UniProtKB/TrEMBL annotation:
Family, per entry: Belongs to the AB hydrolase superfamily.
GO molecular function: carboxylic ester hydrolase activity
Protein name: Alpha/beta hydrolase, putative
Domain AB hydrolase-1: 68-122
Gene3D superfamilies in the record: alpha/beta hydrolase (3.40.50.1820)
Annotated Gene Ontology cellular component terms: mitochondrion
Keywords: Hydrolase
Superkingdom of origin organism: Eukaryota
SUPFAM superfamilies per UniProt: alpha/beta-Hydrolases
Organism: Arthroderma benhamiae (strain ATCC MYA-4681 / CBS 112371)
Amino acid sequence: MRHIQSQATPVSSLSEADALLSQFEPDPAIRLFLLTNLTRKSGKDHLHFRVPLDILSSSLDALGDFPYTDPRKNRFEKPALIVRATRSHYLPDHSKELMQKFFPNLKMVDFDCGHWVITEKPHEFRQSRFLIFSMVPPRA
């Protein structure tokens, strides 16, 4: 994505951006997901990143900040919904039991797809997000 941003002439089409990105990422589904961050402002002839790359880059480390060390000490007791892509290596079957220890009120929804659930199964993903509401008890 930085390669797209660093072009001397700004990128003007998604196909042009995809061609640049394909030099680094062979999977078209992953490229399609990454390219969803590109947009065109009204009246402009070039694309720009909706979420600036420096913000994305500085936020990546925070995604893994949960202290996965000891589930007896570090637990998230509130309802948690994990959307899992069964053809992705990030949450393999053998991790389910351990995840349940860190997140005792966990609901895991499996999707038969690769890592990018939102692009491969958009309708199903949108439907699954409502499950979290059924997990939260109503206020008194």
